[in-house]
Amino acid sequence: QVQFVESGGGLVQPGGSLRLSCAAPVSISRIGTMAWYRQAPGKQRELVARIYLSGVKYHVDSVKGRFAISTDNAKNTVYLQMNSLKPEDTAVYYCNRVGAPYSWGQGTQVTISS
Question: Residue 58 in contact with residue 50, Cβ under 8 Å?
Fold first, then answer.
């Protein structure tokens, strides 16, 4: 059973930055396409960004130009660099495999507030 561990969240002011990390227990290349998701209070979980094994990346429109997904295969880690954060980015952020997700981890809380 693959279990991801998300970290790096916190409380920051609007306009600030955070870098989230997602540690995988096995090589990312064995898992496949990875993605970051988020779930705001009272809302459904939504896709934020995904990265294919080829290195191709996709970011949803609401974060395009502000967030960047990346991987460090040597560390089995997926990152989400978040800049120019807005209050509407407040959510619990999760990582998981695309298409056939494993069990969801606990996520990491990101709160944007002045």
Answer: yes
